[in-house]
Amino acid sequence: VSQRKKMTSSRRHHLKSLMLQIAAGLIEQEKKDIEAAKQAYMAENCPAPDLSGDQAALMEFCKKLHQAIDKVDEARYDAESKVQKANKEIEDLKLKVVELAGVKKPALKKVRMSADAMLQALLGGKHKVTMDLRANLKQVKKEVKEEPTEAVGDWRKNIEDKADRKKMFETS
């Protein structure tokens, strides 16, 4: 097991600042390269306009520029509408995926909490609502019904009475 020394916070801070300086330098260089590439592209593809000539030639040149701008704007609008349509379709597909996958409900945890604690959590600490349900219940007195108990007699007699009833149902 190799043990390596921990880096001190000052050393770590120094290295971090060096890395940030190098990254800032690279970003600046990248910005300069992009600007140079833009200038080279513009010089190659967009020569400086020839503004010498009479007013009629300049008016014709302006009309051509406006037509070119209109064509570019139409192409840009078409491209934007295609992108918006594709984004909407992507959103719809994402919703369909979520619907097909179904929402997974987390397993519910058993929480032991009194009704008073639940109301206090829901309504906040301001409300003092008590839910002592037992206090609201009416007191009910149980009445003991005394059923007349038949005198315990000979069990054979009871069986004979029931046999007579059975015969009565069989004959009808």
TrEMBL record:
<dbReference type="GO" id="GO:0003009">
    <property type="term" value="P:skeletal muscle contraction"/>
</dbReference>
<dbReference type="GO" id="GO:0003779">
    <property type="term" value="F:actin binding"/>
</dbReference>
<protein>
    <submittedName>
        <fullName>Troponin I2, fast skeletal type</fullName>
    </submittedName>
</protein>
<comment type="function">
    <text>Troponin I is the inhibitory subunit of troponin, the thin filament regulatory complex which confers calcium-sensitivity to striated muscle actomyosin ATPase activity.</text>
</comment>
<dbReference type="InterPro" id="IPR050875">
    <property type="entry name" value="Troponin_I"/>
</dbReference>
<feature type="coiled-coil region">
    <location>
        <begin position="69"/>
        <end position="103"/>
    </location>
</feature>
<dbReference type="InterPro" id="IPR038077">
    <property type="entry name" value="Troponin_sf"/>
</dbReference>
<keyword id="KW-0009">Actin-binding</keyword>
<dbReference type="GO" id="GO:0005861">
    <property type="term" value="C:troponin complex"/>
</dbReference>
<dbReference type="Pfam" id="PF00992">
    <property type="entry name" value="Troponin"/>
</dbReference>
<dbReference type="GO" id="GO:0060048">
    <property type="term" value="P:cardiac muscle contraction"/>
</dbReference>
<comment type="similarity">
    <text>Belongs to the troponin I family.</text>
</comment>
<keyword id="KW-0514">Muscle protein</keyword>
<keyword id="KW-0175">Coiled coil</keyword>
<dbReference type="InterPro" id="IPR001978">
    <property type="entry name" value="Troponin"/>
</dbReference>
